[in-house]
Amino acid sequence: MENTRRFNTFAEFYPYYLSEHSNSTCRRLHFIGTSLVILIVALALIVGNGWWLIVLPIAGYGFAWVGHFFFEKNRPATFQHPFYSLLGDFVMYRDMLRGKVAF
Fold first, then answer.
1. How confident is the model at residue 3 (pLDDT cuts 50, 70, 90)?
2. Residues spanned by the domain of 78
3. Which of 32, 46, 58, 77, by CA, is between 20 and 30 Å from 85?
4. Is residue 64 part of a domain?
5. What's the CA gap between 39 and 56, in Å, rounded?
6. Mean pLDDT, the chain, as a whole number?
């Protein structure tokens, strides 16, 4: 079933986002994908070649969607809440690094 719930703020959305990432393998795949996105952006800036940015969607979404479809067994929040979901991914990444969200 699709989530048609509306969120007025990111603070309202983030607990929902975390609930959609209860599977540790899914969270780890998100972490790998987000790490790759950060590395690719850094590489593109360091070498001065924007063509590297073409692979960002594959790195970011590829790992995350495998996590959702095969391990979490749900639809990525991106489909209904694209901006909050992107922000949620980076906040969850930070929270994983800080130990607030388990690997």
1. low
2. 19-98
3. 46
4. yes
5. 10
6. 94
